[in-house]
Known about the structure:
Distance between the termini: 83 Å
Structural class: alpha+beta
Shape: elongated
Largest sheet: 5 strands, antiparallel
Number of helices: 10
Oligomer: single chain
Amino acid sequence: MLKKGILFLVFAALLISCKGKNEGDGDSYYKKGKFRNAVNSYVEAKKKGKISEGFYDSFVIAYASSAKQTALKNASDGYIGGCIEQIYKNLPNTKKSATIDSVVVALTDIGVAQIKGDYEYEYTVQGFRNLDSALAIAKRNNTNAEYAKKARKDMENIIVKRALESAEGADHPVGAEYVLLEAELFAPDNADLKKALNSVRLKNRADFLIFEAVGIEKPSRFINKYGYIIAFPIINITPTSLTGQVNIWNSTGNNIDFDFSKLKLVSTKGETVSAKVGGGTCEMSDHLGQKKESLKGSVGKLLSELRCLVNISFSYPNGFIPDYVDYKDANNNMGRKYLGQK
């Protein structure tokens, strides 16, 4: 027994000796809850190259703890993003499942803090990204994702509640749609949100909707203000047709030959039909829009920051429920108008 005890002490001493001073300092700072100091010490240890076998687990957990600690004080602190970047970079080098669990919990808590903080919309986007990253990491590593799942659902409910209240108090239905679209990015399947969006879209058919949110990489249902902005000042929808006038505003920054026959009407099931064009005009001057030019066939000169007003129709079979009108050109400039359903 004595020999075994001595061997254990020797083994423990060897483990300790595997750590350099910087890594040891990092461990000490971490135990005291000084997570930024721990991170700094681990960074120095990594630079010098003298690290133990379990270094990366300690390194990643220190970053996760430091980011979470910062988020709970100020979730808009730019330091958080740098920590998260290092977590992603070094996570593949870790060995312990407990490290994965710690990262999932930290990203979840950071996301919640960013969303609850009621900062600019950019931080709400970041918050949901962190929640989704937590879920993805948990799934990829077959660890428990319930904590992150519940947190994301709770945050969806908070965001939807805020959006519905703001939309109800908006001065104009277009403003209401902006607010609801922000929430839809995170809760696209929420029944109350869908109902509210449908209601404002019915009111906004004749209005331009220009929207560009900070931090959004996917267009989702947003309309980028540097594309084609679409409105229907006159519209009539029957079980087998959509007819009326479409108004297209060119906000691409370039003069365009716009082919109105390439406008697509998309159903709620993703079915598409192409437009038939019945003539129209395009503005040639911004002076009260008095100078205009007629379409040549289905193509009109759509000058930058000016509009075309065109008679248009779509035919489709029974059961086709119009959802939105879509356009995309060869340079990936796009426009989309959601119509709402009565």
